[in-house]
Amino acid sequence: MAADTSIAPADQADAGYSIERRTVLQGIGATIAAATLPAASIMTRSDRVEAAASDPVKLGFIEDFSGNLSVYGLQKLHAAQLAVKEINDGKTLKGGPVGAGGMGAEGSFAGKPPIIGITGTTLPVVNDGGSKDRKDVVFAEDEDVLVDSGEKGILGREVQMISPDGQSNNALWQQLARRLIQQDKVDVLVAGFASAEREAIRPIVDQAKQLYFYTNQYEGGVADANTFCTGPVCEQQVIPGVSYMVEKFGPRGYTIAADYNFGQLTAAWTKAFAPLVGGQIIGEEFIPLSVSEFSTVISRIQQAKPDWVMTLLVGQNQHNYYPQAAAAGLRLPMVSTVNMAQGYEHRRFKPPSLAGMHNAIQYQMEVPTNRNRAFVSRWMKMFPNDQYIGEMAQNTYFTIHLYAKAVRLAGTTDQQRVKKALEAGWTIEAPEGAVFLEPGTHHCAHYIRLAVCDENHNVSFPRSWPSIEPWWLQRLGVNLIKHPEYKQYVPDEDPYFAMFAKNAPKKS
Questions:
Q1: Cβ-count burial of 40 within 10 angstroms (0-12 exposed, 13-18 middle, 19+ buried)?
Q2: Number of domains in the chain
């Protein structure tokens, strides 16, 4: 029976289970499952009969559909609904327990990257980069990555998606997590935008040994045997971004960050790494999520005269910094790990509010590849009124496809066996490119692109790194397969930063 994600049991309405009906009607009836391998190759006949006769697989999904963080949560809800629909229609993303592949060939290309316009959702090219008179060896990815799975449903079962509204309220998140795990007995939990939300529910997840996916870009460091983090982390975003800013604009940076663990720890990464590439952070400010007025912050930045600003601002309140800074004449180059790719401020605010923004992203809607254009087209067919597809929405989409593949390989929804299947060394062909789930740390290697916003808020990608591994936890010795643990590491626990910072080269 199809899942109705817009209506929840009456006794759950007080805990945020009721969300605005118009945001979910297009996702009603969606279910989840899939893998590339035929079911018969990984299950016995008795297993298949048992699975076909059993109840639906339950996917617990918590995001913020209202409140300060709803600008992200509604995107992620639609991503889950799209993935679920595709899987139930008998589709899956290419990939399996094997490394990424592609075709190497000599090709011609332009001297500059194409610039993608911000009008509509067709990703128009406003400048193609000029004559394609340069030749070299190029890497060509598969363009068609959504393929037939061989069956509808997962192991012959439908999956019910239960999707309460976290309402941007951390205390409510704990209540919802307990209900999904203890009462609804979900087979998998996909949940969380803010790191504070993740950390609010992770003790509950660990107590129950619940299989949990955190799909957001974040500050890194979570080493948890029950948690799989599929978004990019600081070594994949802060390091490329800061390196580029020091090289392009100069050594002096100024950080403004949301005042909770994401902002604090990402700022710590920025401060620790900058000296290794000849930079320095000359000022830091941590701003509560409730703040929406930035005149004093802007004044202090102007007085400090940095070469560039690291902005780690989160939520609809803090996004107001950008138009206010532009109005005050603050036109310094900016770098971020969250802005533009997630909150699509370059589309929500008038130019030139985001001019000069740089972000080392693993995905944003303007990525000019054919596989992404196909993904955007499928999304907009299902949700024609959506304005944008952000980084974390794409993560949610491929993560749900990945879960279905792992269940197929395990031959069961038993959570301990599915966790082992996820540790097989998966590559999945996502809209961003090939994503590799590193088994020992439960984090992903991503295709990272440097996105740059111009005066008209059009976007180009002048530099890319086809695969950056999440190497930091590996360097600290984390191996969750051999030594399960349940903590979050912080930059102060890494002796390498302190060891090399004092000998780092200086730039003037």
A1: exposed
A2: 2
C-alpha–C-alpha distance, residues 83 and 97, integer Å: 20
Q: Which domain holds residue 154?
A: 45-97+143-232+367-455+471-487
Strands (DSSP E) contained in 278-379 are 280-287, 308-312, 334-336, 357-361
The answer to whether residues 220 and 359 belong to one domain is no
φ/ψ of residue 125, rounded to 5: -90, 115
Task: Give percent of the chain with pLDDT exceeding 70.
Answer: 86
What is the reported pLDDT for 101? 60
Query: By C-alpha distance, which of 15, 111, 35 is closest to 411?
Result: 35
Residues 173, 84: one domain? yes
AA letter at 483: H
The pair of structure tokens assigned to 260 is: 């909770």
Residues 198 and 111 in one domain: no
The CATH number of residue 254's host domain is 3.40.50.2300
Residue 99, C-beta contacts closer than 8 angstroms, at least 6 positions apart: 427, 436
User: Tens digits of per-residue pLDDT, 425-482?
Assistant: 999 999 999 999 999 999 999 999 999 999 999 999 999 998 999 999 999 999 999 9
**Helix axes of 391-410 and 415-422: crossing angle, nearest 10 degrees:** 110
Res. 102 pLDDT band, cuts 50 70 90: low
CA 52 to chain centre: 33
